[in-house]
Each structure stands twice: as structure tokens, then as C-alpha cells.
Amino acid sequence: MSHPLSARMSVVVPAYNEEATPSSGSLSPSVTSWRTWRAHIRIARIDHWVKNVFVLPGIVFALTLYHLPLTGDLVGKAVIGLLAVGLIASSNYVINEICDAPFDRFHPLKRNRPVPSGAVIIPLAYAEWLFLAIAGLVLSWQISRWFEWNMLVLLIMGCAYNLRPLRTKDIPYFDVLTEAINNPIRLLAGWLIVSSTVPPASLLLSYWLVGCYFMALKRYAEYRRLKEDDSLSKYRASLAFVTPELLLSSVVFYASSAMLFFGAFLMRYRVELVLSFPFIALVMAIYLVLACKHDSPAEHPEKLYREGKLMLAVVSCTVVMGVCLFIDVPWINNFFTPTAPVSRAYVERK
Length: 350
What we know:
Radius of gyration: 22 Å
Helix content: 55-70%
CATH architecture of the largest domain: Orthogonal Bundle
Low-confidence stretches: 1-26
CATH superfamily of the largest domain: UbiA prenyltransferase
Number of domains: 2
Mean pLDDT: 88
Largest sheet: none
Number of helices: 15
CATH topology of the largest domain: Tetracycline Repressor, domain 2
Number of strands: 0
Order of helices and strands: HHHHHHHHHHHHHHH
Distance between the termini: 52 Å
Strand content: under 5%
Structural class: mainly alpha
């Protein structure tokens, strides 16, 4: 049996050919055309900035664990920080649009994106990629050096995910791991806006793995759609070496690992968060149901706000976690008081 990485080399990569791509109109892209500039704005995916909400928990956790007040100066830094994260994310989206264009031609919906449809000037798109990256890093420097280094890592991960020769997007499982790592990077960004310290490793790992859970379900939804259209390996090479069973088993692995690490975090830092477990589980269960639907909304995470049940569960979970973070519940601590011998490290910490 051949190794997936060696098998990957045998996948035929479609060459980019603007003439072979479906055209969204009869006009060629031009720097004097509003249609062209609108296409370049689209590939920055500003509507995806909603994902930067994952920065906010880092701010909240840092404020709570260090018992710091929310000041006007901190709000200003948060606004600058969110803008910096958005610019770096858009830079990654632009290079993703460029590199994915040859593959998007084989997707029933993404073939109409600006690059594969021929609405974008490729050299200008590369310039846009660099401009957004530089702008994001300049803004990041206004927060702190550590924040800037963190944003540089976010930029590098976008390159590793999209650019050859690495292009982890084409490697089974690594595609999920390297895309989901943007979650803890965003959490760390929020934390670094408040503090120059490092968040607990258990929190970062939990945040990463729960991102893997959602991303793996997105891959599962994509697999089901592309299998029907017989364009699986042509659009996403990583899916050519997996099965639905393997994808779902990875989903279970990510979910259980994420919650185990979250449990380690809360038992050490904020045991009240145990009350949020059922709400987190509900969000994950509803998302699983959505991923199993035909034409699943899990394929387009930026549009999940339209799913009423999921949004209700997310809001409820957020409220409960907020209450658990800011309000002490003594009986919870008493309930989880050790009743058997504990490790020396635990005793010394207490």
C-alpha cells in the first residue's frame, strides 16, 4: 500500500489557463474597469472577516484570568488588532484565490469566482497580496512586537497552506490541521492585545482541535458533494486519499481531544466553565447534523449565521461561558474537590 504523500505526487494538477476558464463576461479585465476593481475587492473576502470573532475569546480569557479592567486604551488596541488580523487574513485569502484557481474550475460553484472566471489581473492580484500583508504587519507593530510576530506566523501559515512546494492543502489531514491552526493564532492575537504573556497550552490546543473538528466536517460535506459531481480529486487533491469513514473518525478524534484539553484547562484555571460543557456539545452536535445535509451549509462557514438553530445554540453557549468566566460558583469548586490522593504538583500549586 502506497503512502498518501507518495500517492499525492501522482495526482494530475490542472494547469492554470485563463482561456480555459469559464468567463463571467465578454470583457477582459482592465485597470480602468470598475468590474475589475470589484473583482479584486472580492478576492480579499472582507465578508470573511466575521471569522475574526475568534480573536475575542483571547481578549476575554486574558482579562478574566488576570482580573484586568476593560479600558478605553484597550478597546482602541483591540480595534487596531482586529483590523490587522483582518488584513493578514485577506492577504491569505488573495493568495488562496490565485493558487486555487486551476482547481476551482472543477467546482460547480467556485468556478464562478473572480480568478477562475477571468475577472482578475493576476500580476495585480499578487501585488494586492503583498500590499495587504505589509499593511497588516505595519498595524500589528502598533500593538506589540509579540503581536507582530504572531501575525507573521499567520501569514506564513497561509503561504504554507497555499504555495508549492509545501501546499499542505493537498495533503490528507495536514490540510485540516494547518487551516485550523489559524484558530489558536487568532486566540493568541486576542490574548496579546491584553497581555505579553503566553496563554495556557491546554487552551491553545483545545482551540486548535475544535477548529479541526469544524474543518473536518467541512471536508466531509465537500467530499459528499464532489463525489456526486465526479470532481473529487480534480478540485481537492487531499480528498482523493480518504473515505467518508476516515473523515468521520477524524471528526470524533478532534472533538474528543478538544474537550479533553478544555477540561484540563478549566480544572486548572476556571472550574466554573464545566457548566458550559452541555452547551458546547450542543453546538457541535447541531453542526454535525448540518454537515450531513445535502448541499450542506458547512461548506460555507461564513454563511452559517443564517442557520437559526446553530446561532441560538452559539449565543446560548457564549452567554453561559461569559457568566462562568465572570461569576464565581463556590459549590462547583467544592463539588470537584479531590477526594483521593493527588499528584505532588497539584498540592504544590494549591
